[in-house]
Amino acid sequence: xxxxxxxxxxxxxxxxxxxxxxxxxxxxxxxxxxxxxxxxxxxxxxxxxxxxxxxxxxxxxxxxxxxxxxxxxxxxxxxxxxxxxxxxxxxxxxxxxxxxxxxxxxxxxxxxxxxxxxxxxxxxxxxxxxxxxxxxxxxxxxxxxxxxxxxxxxxxxxxxxxxxxxxxxxxxxxxxxxxxxxxxxxxxxxxxxxxxxxxxxxxxxxxxxxxxxxxxxxxxxxxxxxxxxxxxxxxxxxxxxxxxxxxxxxxxxxxxxxxxxxxxxxxxxxxxxxxxxxxxxxxxxxxxxxxxxxxxxxxxxxxxxxxxxxxxxxxxxxxxxxxxxxxxxxxxxxxxxxxxxxxxxxxxxxxxxxxxxxxxxxxxxxxxxxxxxxxxxxxxxxxxxxxxxxxxxxxxxxxxxxxxxxxxxxxxxxxxxxxxxxxxxxxxxxxxxxxxxxxxxxxxxxxxxxxxxxxxxxxxxxxxxxxxxxxxxxxxxxxxxxxxxxxxxxxxxxxxxxxxxxxxxxxxxxxxxxxxxxxxxx
Length: 522
Description:
Elements: H1 2-27, H2 34-49, H3 56-74, H4 81-104, H5 111-135, H6 143-168, H7 174-196, H8 198-219, H9 227-256, H10 263-288, E1 320-325, H11 342-349, E2 354-362, H12 367-380, E3 392-401, E4 412-418, E5 421-433, E6 436-445, E7 448-459, E8 462-476, E9 479-482, E10 485-495, E11 498-507, E12 510-521
Antiparallel strand pairs: 1-3, 2-3, 2-12, 3-4, 4-5, 5-6, 6-7, 7-8, 8-9, 8-10, 10-11, 11-12
Helix pairs in contact: 1-2, 1-3, 2-3, 2-6, 2-10, 3-4, 4-5, 5-6, 5-7, 6-7, 7-8, 8-9, 9-10
C-alpha cells in the first residue's frame, strides 16, 4: 500500500505540473523552446518514473527539484539559477543511482529491464548539461548546443530507452534483440559526434534510424494487451520515424557543409514533434498501460560466507567442522538421477582419492586482461590460475564446514593449490527445485561471493555440468547480480579409474578460458 501511495504521489506531481507548465508558458521570460525541456522535466520524467521507482527518498526529493525547475523557467537569467539547477542535477543523480542499484539487484539478464536502468542513468547526463547551461559553464559549445544536449538526454536518453524496455516486456523477438541495443549506443554516439566528429554524428543518426524503424516493425508484430496500448506504442515509434529523418538531413548538412535544414527548424519541428507525439504517447503508456516485468528474482540457497581482502587458506581456519574430513564433493550422486560411468560417480563421491592435473588455456584476445587479473588474484589468493598453459598438478583437500555458517546443506570446501600457491577455494553444496537437483558452488571473494548454479545431465557417457539454465551470480550485501558469464564442465571416463575433463568459460558469449584436466585414482 505504501509503495502504491508513493507511486501515486510521483504520478500526481506530473499531472499537476501540466497546469504548472501552462502557467510557465504564459509567464516565462525565456524563449518558447525552453518549454520543450520544461515539459520533460516537470511532466514526462515524474509520470514515467512513477511506473518504475518506489524509493521514498527520491519521491520526496522530487518536490524540491521540480520547484527549482519552476523557478528557473519563471524568472530571468540570474546567478542563483546555477544553484537551482544544481538541485535538479542532484535529483537526476539520485535517479541514476536508483537505476544503477536496480541493475545491481538483477545483473546481466533481461535486456528490456537493462534499458530501463540505462534510461534512468542517462537522465543524469541531461541533468549535467542543464546545470552547465544554467550555471554558465564553458563546455566548448555554444549555449544553445549545451541547452539542446540537455533536451536530447531527457528525451532520447531517458524516455526512449525506458519506453523500449516497456515494449520488450511484451516479448523479445530476434528483431527486438538486434535493434533495442542500438537505443543504448546511439545517445553516446551523438554526444561523441557533437564533441569530436561530424562523421560520427552522422553515423549516430543512422544508428538511430536502424533502431527506430526496427522497433517500429517490432511494434507491428507484438501481441499487445489492449488496442490503446498497441497504438500508443506505435505512435511512439511512428513519430520518431518521421522526426529522425529531419535529424538525418541536419546531420548530413553538418557533415557535408551543404545545409538544407537549420537548427531553428530542427527545434520547431523535431523538438515539438518529439515533445507532443513521442513523449505524449509514451506518457500515456506510463500512466495506464505499462506491461508487468517478466523478471523474477532467482530462488536458490545463497551462501552467507564472504571473503576478506585476502581469501586463501586462512579463510577456512575457523570454519571447519570438528570432524571435518570428507572424501567427496557430493555424498551421493544418485540425487541427480543420472546413469553415470562408475569412475565419474566415484570421483565426485570420493574426490580426495584422486590426483588432478590441469592445462590452463586463456583465449588470445583475453590474455592481456588475464595478465592484469593475475596481479590481483595472486594477492587475493582466489581463482588464482596460471598464465602458462603448462601442465601442472593441483593438490589440496576437502573439508566440511560448520553447519551454522552457511544456510546451504552439507557444505564442504575444496581447497586447491598449484605448487603450494593457493588457486581455488570453492564451497560445494546442492539444492533441489521442481526442475531437479542443482550443484550450488560458492567462491568467496572480498566482501562478496560468486555463486554458480550448475545443472547436471548425462550425454553419451559424458557428465555435463552447465550454468546455462540458472547462471552465475555475484552476491554482495542484499544484491544478487547475474554475471555475463557462462561455464560448462564436461567429464568423461577414459579407462576405469581415469577421467578427463574440460572446463570452458564465456563472457558476454565470447570464450575466454579453457581448462583441461587429467584425473587419476591414487
